């Protein structure tokens, strides 16, 4: 039975499904990056196969132009792109691409070589396109819902890193002493990642659009002029035209860009710093220590765990940073970590490096959630969707710039 909801009806004081919606958003956030984090977490395997090709740096650099280019196109056309088709396309592409890594490794019997490396790079490019579909689509969608959904989504994004690091440590320990143990652990690890991506397809298709609270926010957005939620409303059984309370003229994408340039630059600078250090510097520039081959994996795991913790810190309202000026000052101050990492890698012990990496993750998660939840406040549904896409565009631009700048760490090492 289909229904129609008028925008003139008062907002309910309590809409059912908030807890389930928060949980589903967490899993969808996890799925938006679990494939990419899986690729980062098996860096030790790719360094064994391609020791001279800088896989952690090269694969990240390959990923970003596809993610940034696709995101720029989608952000420009966000008002005409169906959110449901966009998000489902992204999660399905993630599922197939992760499975393709397994197929490629099986087809080549786990050998190195340029041909295998190019194949992996091609799959990584598909990861980038999928990322642009999912992150921009989900952030735009959640921007006009309750802030808890946005926070939970980005907590899930960070959880994907913590989960993949934990699973990677377990699989490495379980298969370390067996024949071809490293490869067996990687295959099991990628299979688990593909399963999580497929779970996201099912949740977004059958569960999320039918939650009462989600239907409420999407109906409200449609009443304010949003055209991107039509397919999701149809999937929830709302197919009749929704009455619009008044003619709504939204701010243009350019106007939103200008009015929120500080928030957009906040995200850009957060990820310029983070990706100039993580993961390439941690794999290639931290030297050899007592942890041996486990050292880089431990550093990656510590970053991911503290990034996850940082994304829950803003739930403590007394320490949530909302000031636009305060956010900018805090984010610019993080660049002081660059000399800290340099001198710690050169003179410090592994304990100091683990502390620094933990702090990098904590501040990355905390500041990301503070910006993402504060920026959309005060706008109508279509504007919040557009702004969400712009924020993700600047986030990906920051990642791309950070990855490019990360190559500066290997200058003076005597080799490319």
TrEMBL record:
Signal peptide: none
Bilayer topology annotation: Multi-pass membrane protein
Keyword Coiled coil: no
UniProt keyword annotation of Membrane present: yes
Protein's name according to its UniProt entry: Equilibrative nucleotide transporter 5
Compartment annotation: Membrane
Entry's transmembrane regions: 20-38, 58-76, 88-108, 114-132, 153-175, 187-208, 265-282, 294-314, 351-375, 387-410
InterPro entries: Eqnu_transpt
UniProt keyword list: Membrane, Transmembrane, Transmembrane helix, Transport
MF annotations from Gene Ontology: nucleoside transmembrane transporter activity
């Amino acid at each position: 039975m289909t229904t129609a909801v008028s925008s003139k009806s008062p907002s309910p004081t309590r809409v059912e499904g908030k807890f389930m919606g928060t949980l589903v958003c967490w899993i969808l956030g996890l799925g938006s990056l679990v494939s990419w984090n899986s690729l980062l977490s098996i860096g030790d395997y790719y360094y064994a196969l391609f020791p001279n090709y800088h896989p952690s740096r090269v694969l990240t650099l390959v990923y970003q132009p596809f993610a940034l280019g696709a995101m720029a196109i989608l952000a420009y056309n966000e008002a005409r792109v169906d959110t449901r088709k966009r998000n489902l396309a992204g999660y399905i592409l993630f599922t197939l691409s992760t499975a393709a890594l397994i197929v490629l490794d099986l087809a080549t019997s786990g050998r190195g070589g340029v041909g295998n490396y190019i194949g992996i790079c091609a799959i990584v490019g598909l990861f980038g396109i999928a990322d642009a579909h999912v992150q921009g689509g989900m952030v735009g969608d959640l921007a006009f819902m309750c802030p808890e959904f946005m926070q939970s989504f980005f907590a899930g994004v960070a959880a994907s890193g913590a989960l993949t690091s934990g699973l990677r440590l377990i699989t490495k320990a379980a298969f370390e002493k067996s024949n071809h143990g490293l490869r067996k652990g990687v295959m099991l690890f990628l299979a688990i990642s593909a399963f999580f991506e497929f779970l996201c397809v099912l949740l977004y298709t059958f569960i999320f659009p039918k939650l009462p609270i989600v239907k409420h926010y999407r109906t409200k957005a449609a009443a304010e002029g949003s055209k991107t939620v039509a397919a999701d409303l149809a999937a929830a059984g709302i197919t009749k035209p929704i009455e619009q309370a008044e003619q709504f003229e939204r701010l243009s994408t350019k106007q939103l860009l200008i009015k929120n340039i500080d928030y957009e630059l906040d995200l850009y600078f957060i990820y310029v710093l983070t990706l100039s250090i993580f993961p390439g510097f941690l794999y290639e520039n931290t030297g050899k220590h007592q942890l041996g081959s486990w050292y880089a994996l431990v550093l990656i795991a510590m970053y991911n765990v503290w990034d996850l913790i940082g994304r829950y810190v803003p739930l403590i309202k007394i320490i949530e940073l909302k000031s636009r000026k305060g956010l900018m000052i805090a984010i610019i101050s993080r660049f002081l970590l660059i000399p800290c990492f340099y001198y710690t890698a050169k003179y410090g012990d592994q304990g100091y490096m683990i502390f620094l990496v933990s702090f990098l993750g904590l501040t990355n998660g905390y500041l990301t959630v503070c910006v993402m939840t504060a920026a959309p406040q005060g706008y109508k549904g279509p504007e919040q969707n557009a702004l969400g896409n712009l924020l993700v565009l600047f986030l990906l631009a920051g990642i791309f710039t950070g990855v490019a700048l990360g190559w500066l760490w290997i200058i003076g090492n005597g080799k490319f």
